[in-house]
Description:
- It is a single chain.
- The protein is 39% helix and 13% strand.
- The longest helix has 16 residues, at 79-94.
- The protein has one domain (13-242): HAD superfamily/HAD-like (Rossmann fold), CATH 3.40.50.1000.
- It has helices at 27-37, 43-57, 63-74, 79-94, 102-111, 124-133, 163-175, 193-196, 209-218; strands spanning 13-16, 115-119, 138-140, 144-147, 150-154, 183-187, 201-205, 221-223.
Amino acid sequence: MNPWPEFESPPAVAFIDVDGTLLAETTTYLFARILRRKGLIKRSFILRALYHGLQHRFGRLDYGRLVGFGLNSIARIPIIDLQRIAYENFVEYVKPRLYEGVVDHLNGLRMQGTAVVLVSSSPGIVLEPLSIYLGCTDMITTPVRIERGRLVGIAEGPPCYGEGKLYWARRWAEARQIAMDETAAYADNWSDRALLGQVGRAVVVHPHRKLKRLALARGWTIVHPRRPRRAARRDTRRWPEGRPPARSPESPSGMS
């Protein structure tokens, strides 16, 4: 039985959260682990990531503070190296953890003409391989500043977290003259309620108690996709040039 929703009429856009929505893990934490194994960050970063992951689960994360700390920790690493590691992270740890049926579901949406847009607080450089693999139309993440080929800080605008997700999603839709009630949103966390409450169709994935109560009260769709039964074999396919193509450094958030 397919746990993902079927729409009588496809939405113009599906804004898709990533962590907890497409996979039962935090992509930034997986990325931090691989950076730690390569000796590129300190163990304290992993501990900080675990703590903030718990805060996120209960909707109490100060994301601006977290992303500032994270960017400072990797500012000395060239972007090209981060891109290469992000691809490795995707193949080894992200792709095998995608919920069952999610790829087919998003393929089905795209075939019906729905634009699939990732909307996530995770850094764009981490999500780029996933976005390409899923055939996404675009990707909205926290905007960052790049200087001399390195990530050096947050750019103008709010972090793509909580109310910030709604801000960036609405801006994306308005730029394309799409009304928010013509869109759908998929998310899993209490912090995502602002975005879920402003779209035409809201899909809540494995919600915890507080969000589940809100979803039931608002009539939102609740889904419980399965985790993969076993880790998928390493994907032996390769992107052109040995790594996924990067978006322009001038538009790191995926906003156009």
